Structures are given as structure tokens and as C-alpha cells.
Hints:
The complex is a heterotrimer. By secondary structure, chain A is α+β, with helices and mostly antiparallel strands. Chain A has helices at about 20-25, 45-55, 75-80, 130-135, 160-165, 210-220, 235-240, 285-295; strands at about 30-35, 35-40, 55-60, 65-70, 95-100, 105-115, 120-125, 140-145, 150-155, 180-185, 190-195, 200-205, 230, 300-305, 315-320, 325-335, 340-350, 360-365, 370-380.
Amino acid sequence: MKIDREHFRQSLQRTPFHDRFDEKSTSEEWMVWNTYKVARVVDKLSTEYFAVRSGCAVMDLTPMEKYRITGKDARAFLDRLVTRDISRLRPGRVTYVVWCNDEGKLIDDGTLFQLGDNDYRLCVQHHQLDWLLISATGFDVHIELETHEVAALAVQGPTSYAVLAAAGIADLEGLKPFDAVALRLKDIPVLVSRTGYTGDLGYELWMEPSHALQVWDAIFGVQGQYDIHAMGLSALEMVRIEAAFIMPGFDFNTAEATVRNGYDRSPYEVGLGWIVHLDKGHFTGRKALEKEHSRPPMRRMEKIVVDGNKPVGEAYIYDGKNGKRCGEVKCGTWSPILKANLALADIEYRNGRLPTDLWARIEYQRELKWRSAWAACEVRSKPFYDPEHRRATPPARI
Amino acid sequence: MTERTDAIVIGAGHNGLVCAAYLARAGIKVVCLEAAEAAGGMSAPRAIGGKYHFSGLAHAAYPISRAMRRDLKLDQFGYAAGPAIDTVALDADGRHLIIGTNRVSGDGLEETDREAYPEFKKQYLAFTRALRPLFDNKPPRLKNMQVADTMTLGKLGWNVRLGLGRESMYEFLRVAAINIYDVLDELFADERLKGAIAADAVMGSAMGPRSPGTILTWLQRLQGELNGPLSLQSGDRLQLVQALVRSAEDAGATIRHNAHVARILVDNGKASGVELSNGEVLNARIVVSNADARATLSTLVGAPLLDAMFANRVSQIRGSGVVAKLHLALSGMPKFTGLSEKQLGHRLLVAPSMKYIERAFNHCKYGEYSEQPVLDIVIPSMHNDALAPDGHHVMSVNIAYVPYDLEGGWENQKQPVADKVIAQLGQYSPNLKSLLVEHELLTPRDIEEQYRAVQGHWHHGELSIHQSFMMRPLHGAAQYDTPIEKLFLCGAGCHPGGGLTGLPGRNAARRILELGAAK
Amino acid sequence: MPRFAGNPAKAFSASPEKPDYRAYTLNRPRPKACYKVTWFTANNKESQASMNHYDAIVIGAGHNGLTNAAFLAKAGLRVLVLEKNPYIGGATVSRELHHGWQYSNCSYVCSLFRPEIYNALDLGRHGLKVIPLVSSMTFKQDGDYFGSYYNPNVRRRELMRHSLRDADAAIRFDADVLRWCRLIRGFLLRTPPDPGSFRPRDAFEFAYLLKKFHELSESQLYEFIRFFTMPIAEYLENYFENETILAHYSGGSIIGTGLGVYSPGTAYVLLHHAMGDVDGNIGAWGFARGGMGAVARALASSFQTHGGDIRTDAEVAQIAVSGNRVTGVELASGEQISAKVVISNLDAKRTFIKLMDENILPAKLVERARKFKIRGSSGKLNIALDGMPSFPSLPEGSPLTLGHMHFTDTLRRLEKAYDDWKEDRWSADPYCDMLIPSQYDPSLAPPGKHMMTVFVQYCPVQPEGGWTDEKRDQFGQTVIDQIADYSPDFKDLILHAEIRTPRELELEEGLTEGNIFQGELTFDQLMFNRPFPGYAQYRGPVRGMYMCGSSTHPGGGVMGAPGANAAREILRDLRKPDSTPQEFSDD
């Protein structure tokens, strides 16, 4: 990739879809994502939220860091990198993975695409080239940053299948969750994966930047038939909490950038123990995780529903009303579709057990006046929102 | 063919042999695998022209500690320290200094220096003695300590705080981490004397006298002097290696020659044996590697079986050899201006001043060899006629600084380096050139090839502070055990480092026994 | 405005009638001090008797002396500060050495100054303003450049422009350095414990030290020791691969030291320069508006508000001692001033060898003072410019001229510069830290003109045969030539240049051998070893005598911490309430 000597003149880069977002943006709420300018809210937050939950929302994923991993040892390299057993990953499939440092603390999570034999793409939130190259010592593997060479668009919501089919993508109906195949939108080659960060039916489209606007225009070309909205990151934050997906850098610190000892988290601690396969052979952090696994849990990220309707964005959690403090909310949202106050909270266990009577102490403002309130919390073991239509293949055309 | 034994020791260098002997004496069935034809590693004998014999890389060393001699019954198996030798600091004008363990003499030496020298040695030997608990034990961990670690630290603290006395402790804390250049400048006036001491502090390291940390390397070297004076490794008898081999074999250890280990077999995070380059597989309860830590972990085990950052840190271990060895076969006795025949039996040092050494060092930072190198010379045949044909002599020269990665490559530059050194020797010994029969130059690259020491480094890794103690060879493997269960390290790359001390081998064996790993 | 054009060699041989481009030399009449201080004592209406007796006398009006004095005065003591020069500030000074230009001719940027002291002495109200610097950059020999921008997005892209990997490694590097900074900063405003003592207080301080270290994980602990003892080049190679980026980050590690980038221990010096902050931005540097003299002026003003006196042109000849107690000082003029407490802001060597009678000092102390390593290794150029020089390597409008500018783009060049110093030569290809602060601060130069400060590493204490004016000018020429390689119009813009070698720093600021830290920052001279083992708690060998200069813990840099720490110890001995601040914690 070539960066101009005079790049300093523009603080934020533009994604290939930027012009379209700019046209649609009425709220002019922008934010920075990996040095790109992206929409926080395009038009209206609630419209964008309900587009994901009832229609079709389109979001720019280009700033997501994407790494192409190839070479003779690519598979062995990835196997040593991630905690999950990926032996069943095949070309055309995608899997969700996390990886740890030597101490078994989480560095990042991401989706791993197998594109062909010894050909993988890893899509992540944070910058990982340093860690990937550190991990590559001793492997015959080639790692290339392709964030800026691949434009990406998330098309999510119950009607996303219908929209994409109407927009001209053929052969979509057989695509199962976590499939990724090279298809065509009219004549344009697009890699389509049935993946997403919304907990709803959805697809992600990966293409060359030069095709980006054609793809966009094809999708929005069927706007007359379907309710399609461009979506910003604020709506994404709401739906991902409903789906109980965690966000690196917000819900946990990435280990290699953690300054204070003990402020990083293991996969077990954030509730991702289900993708740690201690018996799969060696991977970075295995020894530490084995040790942790053999001990009673110290803390866990829990999915909690907080009583009432007060916003629970920043709150401490207590063991019993007026009891001892035992945790804190990492992220929370009011769910318009569930009419409930949802949160992910980092809770300290007592003697290896989750405290049974959790309460949140919520500080909130009413007309500039601060108030505080106690609210009971209920722990959930499943995602808050997980609709059936998300899994149906072929998806319904509603 | 597979065989099963308790412990496999990779490499029959002196540390490997010490470790094997200790383990065998504890009733463990040990097989020691040596890639070369003979045991001994860097102190194994070698010959040029079939009749001129040298002692490999180590040509002078301090005696082995009394405790080790007793434990391994080395004296019984023929060990005796070689002939004790002094150091002659050569001077271009023939005003040489004779430097012994606690006295120094020579033309033009000032009285104050003559008096200061024994004081200096006394003080630094006291510092060294205070550090003993650290050298004689596995390096203590600084967190998650075991009782033994606390004991080591406690003894060390006691020695430094109470053993040395208040003023001496202050002085120790002041100088411990700094360079020898400033310290010697404070103490002595004579450039020759300062040069000779500084040369010993930096020999074998990619450091100059001005590099902080050279007091520590000097103290490390002085550890040996606690056992006795510097002695010549004369070559044919190789008392130490032979005694160790016999001691190990006596205790039941087997030593196999020409057995080159290609890889260490790891099964589910545990070392289970080794595979030789001929495909033979040997199984054992534990594997102990006397090979370079870098070679052991990155090559024999391989990065994929290690955690990523650990593997990366292994690849960051510094240790690029800077000393070349020149062997000269001479048809007669060389004459050195200003030296008697008897004095030729001592170690001769070309390091006329600290500035000279520092300048020599400057080159190797940029991948150049020193035009005016530091030379450490012995003529072992002065003590042992058997090393060369009648009337002939052998001369062994350590040359610093000669880089491993020479700019422009070694291919065409070996001969010029040898020629330059021979010419330089000629300045001190006018008849040397006329006596020269044959010569052999071992550059760090040759040392890597022939002795399997990564980058040809004597000590399997630079003895800088950040690679010493609980950081040697790297933290996470500093107590001789490694992240691979049942795999141990016992070479010079481990604490307390290089030199013919056997301490890494002994400490490793003790660690293995303490863990009960081989049972 | 006279303007010099043409051959710079001619400039140095210029006769007095020609434009004033010659270096400022000592034999010339001193130009007017930029800060008139005569009124400090003129306002003093006290009687002669009380003018000659004080509770405490501070020798030297450097920033640490003034900090120390201000805290003592704040605690209610009658304090006098004595300064040999006609102006205050020591090495924290700004002077009008060329008409219309303010030269901060020693220290030139401010970051280490402890915010706790700033706050406790109310320096903002006394006129101090520290404006953050926004960037740093290194020119490459191939016409390109590397910039470290304040804007995180631009900074990241610039790193990526040079190395994709390094851009990501910088995140790990920043976190690690921040971790070490947090650790070290906890020790800045504390008195180091004495390993030779069994007093409860020392045991407590050791316990505090252990506690701080215990906050690290085991591997972090080892990594910290490694960091502390490593060469900067090797440390950075654990993160970065790009030659220019390595050189750029290494520079801060050699400033003021007699070490090279491959010398063990230099990684710590990086920290010494990175642990400063401007409003919580760790590692950020700032300009004091009005030049570094503004720091001294604000300190003096705070000191005077608390009733303190300052006398300039008052060189102390000796610290008077009777029995085992100080009784005051004797000035070079013969005047005697008595005090119960005397504090020296001079470096340790000067304090004990020049100001005290050797015969009354313990022999060990005299020996340590003699051995104290205080070799200067830096030079400085202060240049008045007729306009803003152009740098063709930089695109038009680049913000990088606003910050630090460097010209050394490889580790090899940095190390070669050090090799020269070891041979008592100034570096033929020196490492320069160049700034043009008049871009921010209109008070430094007339409108449209500029003031440039160039810190130069390395410059020997004594070149072979000693310093002469010719040699000094040759040294200056080497630096000017290096700058001119990257700025073709630079030489033509020079109106006046002051060239300072360790000789000038010693003669004017009294920094022995021109060492900017009042003693090298090597392991033998840090923490409880600074300045000497057994004397690291600011107390001298006789009762009532103290040290407060950069020779004491935590060392050099415009930090103020030694002055504040010394004040704490003095007040403790006098059983007065402590007026010094506690460290700000970010936890």
C-alpha cells in the first residue's frame, strides 16, 4: 500500500463508500474508526436500529483490519495463534476466533475466513500486524495487511437476503451461516459471507474498492421495493449488545496494550471459554489457560437485564442491595425491541461462584440534576435477542 | 530402533558432562549424545597438520571448584588444574608488565599502582565472594518465590549488607552495574595495567571497556579465581574433559559420539526424547540440552511448539561472537622482545590501553574487524613438549574483535585477517614469521559451524546484565526448566554463564533432582 | 537589521565592524540581563543586622535552588538565595544576547517539571505558561522525512508510511514505556532510602519501593530490569524494524549522556526524557512562554511572595562551618552572612571541592566527590534568524517545523557520533535537537524574525589541546553545515549565533565540565547512589548543610524534584510542617 508524503493534510481517510454516506447523512454525526471517517449516526438512530431488526441496514465495514494469511504453514500458524480448534475449517467457511498472549490474556477476537488452500483472511477490530508477525516466527507464512485493498459492506436485517437477491446476487439461497463464497452482483465479483455483528440475519460483502460504489448503488437500487437504510456505529452498538457480542477495547483491554497489571482478561473471564480448546494441541497461552481452567473462576462477563428503564451505561454492580461492590457494567443499552435494560458486566465471583443477588447502582441525570437509584439485575445465560429467522436456510423473503 | 532411558543430555561439552555426571551419581540412567567425534565441546582437542595440537577454543581457564571436584571425584579421575600462569601485558617498546593474581611488576610502573593492585583484587574478590550464593544456585525468581529463592536472595542480601561492611557495600552497589573503564581510571594510572584488566573483562563479549556491565563480566570471571589461579589448558591431556567423562561413565552414564540430535521430540507439551539426524529415535523421561538455548528452543524444539512471545524473545537473545581463534604451528621457539624464555610460558596480552581496546571494539559495532585487535596469546608447548614435534611450538591466539557478520562476508577476508594478526604479532616477536609452518583461523562463523554455537558466541549469549541471572538465557526459562515440560537447559547460555566452570551444568542437575523430574 | 550573506567561514573571521555573527564570547561586556533583579534586595527594608542573618541560605538561583527556597519560605523560614551571575535561573535562563532576541541558552524545553510543584507554588499565577509542543521529526538523507505528529490518525499513517509493522508495534511500545514511566514517577518526589541504614524510615521507603515493584507481574518485573539495563538500540529493536524510526526514538536516550545508543543503560535515559508530561500527556514536551527563564521568574516570584530574598552578583566563596555545624556563607567579596541552614544548588563536585574546606570533610566523601562522573557531552547553538528557514524535504505547510527536528536517520550515525566523543572530538556528524520556538512564542524574536535553538550531542569536555574560540567556532560550523544540508537558505538568514561548548556551560552556569544533568545518569549515580552512596538523602556531611541540585535524586532536567525533596528533608530536620507536595497519582 502506498501512503502519500502529504497525507498529514487530511486527518481522516475516506472509505470507498464515503460519498454515499455523505449524501445520506442528515445528522452529520461522524466518528473515527481506524483512521477512517465513518458515520456514528447517518439519519436517525431509531430508524437505523429498526432497519436491522425489521428491514435491512447497510453499514460500512471497510475500516475493519483485514489480514491475508498465506503460505505453506498458514494453517499451522493459525492453529498455534487461536484458542479454538479450527481443524474443521474448510475453504468457503468462516469461524469466530480469539487469541491470547503467553499469559493467556485476550489480545483480540476476529472472524477467520478460509478462502482457499493455505489462503485465509482474518478480520479484526484492532491492529494486529505486530502480534501476527511475532507469532509468525518459525512458520513459513506470509501475512499481508489488506484493510485498504478490500472494501467491505455489512447488509443486515430480516430482509437482507431479499434485498441482496433483488439487487442481483444470484445463488444466495444456499448460503448457510458462516459460509463465505465468491459470487457476482450482476457482473461484479463479490465475496459474500453470511456473517455479522448484529445477531440478526445478515451478510457481509467484500469487494475491490473500485467496485464499491457500484455495489452500493445496486443495493440501494431496490430501495423502492424494500426498506433499506444506511446505518452508523451507534445502532450497531445497540444491536450487538442485544446479541451479547463483546467488543475488544471496550469490554476488555487488549492484552498487549494493557498498562496496569491485572487489567487484562482471559477468554474464560469474558465468557468465551466455549472457544478455548485445551486439547487441540499447542497454542499460545495454552499453559496459562490450562492453569486458569483448573482453578475456580475469579470473574466472568455476565449478561444481565437490569430492572427498570434507567440507562445503565456506567454503573457498579453490588452483591445485594447496599451490599459489597462486586463488579461493573462494561456496556449497556436500552433495547427498543425487548423493552429492557441490557448490559454486559464484569462480575467478581465469590469463592468461585457468581453472587446470587446482584444490584446495579445507577447514576443518571434528569434536567441536569444527578440522581441515583438501585436496580435489581437478572443474569441470563443466552443472548438477549436471538431470532429464529437468523438461522433459516434458505432465509425467508420477508 | 527406540531405546528408553531416564535422561538424555544433548552435547558432551563440559557443562553437559557435569550435568550428566551429577545426574548419574544420583542414580539416574543418563545417555549423553555428542555430535562430534570426541567429547569436550569447545575444550575438545584439535590438531593442525596432524602433529600440532591445540585445546580447541578454551586455552586458559580457572580451576574447577573444590565442591565439584569432590562431588564428582574429579581428582580421582585424573583432574589437576593446568600449570598456573601469570599474564604478561605486552608493550610495543618492550616495557612489559607481569601481572599475577595479586601482584604486578614491570618497568615504569608507578608505586601507587603497584600498591593499589592487590587492594583492588582483594576488594573485587570480596565482591565476587558476596555474589557466590547467586552463582551457586539457580537464579531466584522475584515473584512467586520458592523457599530456595528466598534463601538465595537472603544470603545474597546478608553477604552484601553485612558480609562486605558498610563502605564496601556502598562501593559494591555503586560499581555493580557500571563499566570497568571508569572504575579502573579512578584506581590506576598505568595504561598497560588498566588495559590488561579491562581486556579480561571484555574478552568474549561484544562490549568495550566503556560499556556499562563490564564490571559484572569482570566479577563473573573472578568467580573462577576463587578456586585458584588462571591455568593453562595445555591441550593433549585435557584433564578436565577426561576426568568428567570418566566420572560420568563411572557413575553409569553412557556417552555416545557422532550422535547428532536433529530435533527434540515433544508430545503434548512434554519432551519425550530426541531424534538423531540419522533418523534414530531415543526416548527418555527428560531431555537436558547443553546446546545453545537459541538452538535448543528455536531449532531443536521449534517456535511452533512455544508460545508466540516466548519464541519471539528467544529469537531476540543477543550473542553474536566477536572473538576469533588463531592457531599457529611454529618450527621453533618464538622470541619476544623483552621477554625471557621462561616468561613465554605465561599468557601474553596485547591490550596496551583501555582506549586501544575501545577502539578495537568500535569496529565490530559496524561489522568490521579490528585493524588493531586485542590479542590473548598462549604458547602451550612451553609447558608440554608433546603438543608439537621436537623443538617445534604451537601458539594459540584469541583475537578480539572479529565480528560474526563481517561486512562483505567472510569468504575472501579470512586470509587478510590472519595476515594482519601475524604481522601484528611480528611487532612483538620479530622471528615469528620466519618460524611459521602452518596456521588456522577460526572466525566466529567457523566456530558456529564446528562447535554448533549460534553465531559463534563463546558464552551461548552475551553476558550483559539484561541477559544475566533471572534473565538468562531468558525469563521463563531461567531456572533451567523450560516451558516444554521435561526439557531442561544446562549450557553456558544459562545462569551463571560461560567459562570453564561447570556451574550451569551443576545447577541444572540440582534443579532436575529437586523437581524429581527424571523419576 | 544587518544581514549576513555568503560564505559562513568568512562570518567567523568577521571583524567587529562586520555584522554581529560571531559567537558571543565571555570577554565581551555582558549584554544587559534580560531580567533585572537588582530590585530584589532594594525593596528590603530590614535592618543591616537581619540582612546578614537568615534561617536558610540557598547557594545558586537555578530552578532547583529557587524551588527549594520557595518551599522553605512557604514553610515560614527566612530564606536568602545567592546567585553569582547578575541574572537568576542558572541553566533555566533566557537572556537577550542579541538585540531583540531572547535566548534560552541552556535548557530549552520543559516537560519534566513536576506538576505537583507547579501547583503547590502556584506558578501559573506567577506567570508561567507551558505550551505543549506538537511534533517531532527526523530528516532522512534521501530527501524524505519521518514525522511524529500529535494527531493520532496522522501519526499512525506516518508510521505506516515507513513500516506497517512498526505502526502496530508502536502501540505495544507506548503501553510498555507508559508502564515503566508510571513506576518511575512514583519515586520522583520521594527521598531515596539508604541501603546502609537500619532506620525505620529507610526500611519504610524500601518497603514502598518493593510494593511499587510488586504491582508488576513477574514477567513485567524482569522486563523492567531488562529495560533498565539495556542499550536503547537493542530495546527498540524489540519493537521496531525501520531504521529511521529506530533512530528517531533513540535520540532522546543519549541527550546529555556520555553513552551511545548501543551502551547498556541508555534505555533508562529514554525514560528520563519520556516520563515528563504536559497536562497528562506522558512524553509530551512544552515550551515555557518567554523562554525557560520564565520558569525561574515564576519560581522567584512565588518565592518572594512568601517573603524570600534573592541577591544576584553575590558569588559564594565558602560555606562557613564551625565544629560540625554550618554557620553561614562567605561571599567572594568577603562579606559574611550567617544562617543555620545552607543549601547548595551547585553540583556535588563543586559543592564539596570548591565551597568547602577539604580538611573538615570525611576523606571518603572527598574521594567520592573527586570520582563523581560529570563529563559534559553536549553543546548548544542559539541562533537569531532573519526569517523562517525553508526545509525543502518537508511539504509546504507541514506542521513538523513546529516541533523537535533531527537530522540523524540511522543508529549507525548516532553511534559514530558517540565514537567521536570517546576520542575527545566533537561529532563530525552530530545528533541535533533543533527547535524554532519563536513560531509559537512572539516574545522571543521581533515580528517576522525567528529564534532557533540547537542542542548538539556530542561535544567533548576538552578536545585535544583544550578549547579555544577557534575550535568552538569550528564546532558551531559543523552544526550549521549539517542544518544547511537540509535548509539551503539557512546560512543566509543567520544574524547572530551563540555557540556553547561544555567550556561555556561551566564558565557561565557553573555546570562542572558542562554536564547538563550535574552528573551523569548512570547506575552508579542514580537513586541511593546519587550523588554518592550514603549521601543520597540531601544532607551533607556537616549539620545544617544540604544539597538540592540536579546532582541529587532524581537527577537532571528542569524537574524541580531535587529542590522539593531537599526542602522536605530540611523541614523535617527543623521539625517544621512539610510544605512540599505529594505525588499526583493517576490511579
